[in-house]
Amino acid sequence: MAGEFQAIYDRSISDPNGFWGEVAEDVVWTKRWDRVLNHDTPPFTRWFDGGELNTCYNALDRHVDEGNGERTALIYDSPVTGVVDRFTYRELRDRVATFAGALAKRGVGKGDRVIIYMPMVPEAVIAMLATVRLGAIHSVVFGGFAAHELAVRIDDATPKVIVSASCGIEGQRVIAYKPLLDGAIEQAKHKPDACILLPRPVLGEREPEMARVEGRDVLWADATCGVEPAECVPVGAMDPAYILYTSGTTGRPKGVVRPTGSHIVALRWSIKNVYGIKPGDVFWTASDVGWVVGHSYIVYAPLIGGATTVLYEGKPVGTPDAGAFWRVISQHKVKAMFTAPTALRAIKKEDSQAKLLAQYDISAFEAQYLAGERCDPDTLKWAQETLKVPVIDNWWQTETGWPIAANCRGIELLPFKPGSPTHPCPGWQVDILTAEGHPVTKPGEIGAIAIKLPMAPGALSTLWGSDERFVESYMSEFPGYYQTGDAGIRDEDGYIHVMARTDDVINVAGHRLSTGGMEEVLSGHPDVAECAVVGVADDLKGQVPLGFLLLKDGVNKTHAQVIAEVVQRVRDQIGPVAAFKQATVVNRLPKTRSGKILRATMQKIADGEPFNMPATIDDPAILDEIREALRPMGYAKAE
Ligand code: COA
Ligand code: AMP
Predict the structure, then answer these.
(1) What are the C-alpha distances in Å from 286 to residues 258, 303, 337?
(2) Domain containing residue 35
(3) For the chain, how big is the Rg over CA atoms in Å?
């Protein structure tokens, strides 16, 4: 590889100060940085140290000030309510400034936290931007999480204000949010000063009642009525823009902290160079603002890049049919879209020939981006043949904030290899490490995928409230590296192939979940003595969780009863997003002689994959029992 991309990549690594310093010239700062890269206290990295700026200014006000206020900033497309709405940059800026005024009136200022628990409505984006306008820190919690998960985040982030809505709409179903919010606040030790609540009158009688707590709850319209719009408050480049909780290793979520300055710089670079989007182009990410993909590519990157972003409150299928994505692309002249492979699998399942596509003119469409989970070659091929545009896999994580590896269409398209997100992006030094922490010697050798420090701008700076946990979670196993938690290879062309997680994280419909977290919920059930949860292959969702339960002696309920109860328990405590629907009762769990449960072997048995008998297994006969328990469920078909 010796083209333009390679030259850019090489420079980003050999001269990070020059490379990112030039990119940062394109961002509006109220105070210029003293140093581009400060890596004096590893493993911590300080990008643009000494600089000051405001995220909302860079996302909205600057475009108005530069004469582009009448350009469309956001298109809200909601097939579940029948609404399509548009906001120019000026309109969005004004709405955000007013809501920031409402937050300020409730005491929110620089460094304070605001939790946002909202469906995919413009007010969710407005609340995010209003928070950062004040120099405050938002933490968006995905609507598919239950009250308990929300409570854990409330206690960790200790927000002054929570912004929520009466309900979300999941396909045809209305999901009341307010009872979940009330339940979470009741469970949490920390109590917010105020909750600002958005009613959804468009639903008419379908809208659930919103009981209001006197002195705490205020409706959105009342909160914003007559308030003074708030100005942008500059913050330090290393001050957090937001906290986003993600799963990993235990049930306790990690609060990923995004530093303000390098976040803006990295997203402005990536929207142009990775996604090929210029000011005025329409970009659509079909995800949710509760995930990092939504933060970066529904909200911040397109707006920072002066493009038009689409906020879609619908599903790939059922709202109303498997042609919904093509309708949105056609109606809004979308130039590039981004979603998870699972969404395309859902469409393919219902309309394998993509007959519905014939109804729409998608001639403005230039590229399809996929991330969030491994892109299986079948889905990739189907998308390429159906859409007849480049289909670009990109690999990254909540922690990194933007792609670690992708085919950077905005620079030049490199040859495609199915199953690979291509080459590391500028700024990311990726190594494949052996268990001892040495880079593998041969291309194609599998190992832990790790990133050499310093990480690129935009990556997390720490975990909220705990530098120690940050170091322990990511930097301790391989000193000098950030451990991604993924395993894979680098091939002879320098392409990365991401194969599997090395921890307990599973990926369900593009949603990252911890099996450890589910095990904590199962073991809390009074009849469960021991348990294990593994992620098994699923045609639609990529993976789904499957539980193994060992019951206490003397339980006088049927197995079906206990299984139904634990399924409900996970739904109540983690949320429907866990998609935990299957479990089986076994007499014993396979373990090593030192007592470690052999989860990876159980997963391979369930998926009918070959496996090597673990040398340290205590009793191999237990594997046959596991196989017998799985067969009636349709798993463990062949090995
Ligand atoms: N609020 C409340 N509940 C939610 C929710 C939200 N924001 N999002 C999902 N849920 C619920 C779903 O309704 C479902 O509930 P159920 O068990 O009662 O049916 C459950 O959580 C599981 O959701 P999901 O795994 O998304 O399954 P699904 O069958 O509803 O939809 C897909 C499957 C493939 C259509 C959907 O997952 C999808 O579009 N995914 C791709 C895009 C994406 O969001 N990727 C994320 C990161 S890029
Ligand atoms: P999240 O933090 O929710 O974005 O999930 C990140 C994890 O999803 C990664 O660590 C991978 O395990 C997986 N992932 C995301 N994108 C890809 C991809 N393009 N290919 C393979 N795995 C991916």
Answers:
(1) 22, 16, 7
(2) 4-314+394-488
(3) 24
Kindly give the distance from the C-alpha atom of residue 452 to the centroid of ligand 2, in angstroms, as a whole number. 18
Tell whether omega for the bond before 454 is within 30 degrees of 0, i.e. cis: yes
> Three-state SS for 261?
helix
Instruction: Tell me the one-letter amino acid at 482.
Output: Y
Tell me which amino acid residue 532 is.
Answer: A
Cα(339) to centroid(ligand 1), Å? 13
483 shares its domain with 584: no
Q: Is 393 in the pocket of ligand 2 (CB under 6 A)?
A: yes
Chain position carrying tokens 């929300």: 150
Q: Judge whether 342 lies within some domain.
A: no
Q: With a 6 A CB cut-off, is 501 part of the ligand 2 pocket?
A: yes
Q: Whose CA is closest to 616, among 590, 636, 639?
A: 590
Index of the ligand 1 atom closest to the CA of residue 315: 39
> Ligand 2 centroid vs 373 CA: distance in angstroms?
5
Q: How many CB atoms lie within 10 A of CB 279?
A: 15
Answer yes or no: pTM beyond 0.70: yes
Are residue 75 and residue 159 in the same domain, yes or no? Answer: yes
pLDDT digits (tens, 9 = 90+) for 76-102: 999 999 999 999 999 999 999 999 999
Q: Are residues 112 and 251 in the same domain?
A: yes
Q: Give the separation between CA 133 and CA 522, rounded to whole angstroms.
A: 42
Looking from the CA of residue 508, the nearest atom of ligand 1 is 25
The DSSP secondary structure of 156-222, one letter per residue, reads: HH--SEEEEESEEEETTEEEE-HHHHHHHHHH-SS--SEEEEE--GGGGGGSPP----TTTEEEHHH
DSSP for 420-461, please give it: ---SBPTT--EEEE-TTSPBPSSTT--EEEEEESSPPTTS--
- Same domain? For 139 and 272 the reply is yes
Ligand 2 within 6 A of CB of 246 = yes
296 CA → ligand 2 middle, Å: 14
pLDDT tens, 260-316? 999 999 999 999 999 999 999 999 999 999 999 999 999 999 999 999 999 999 999
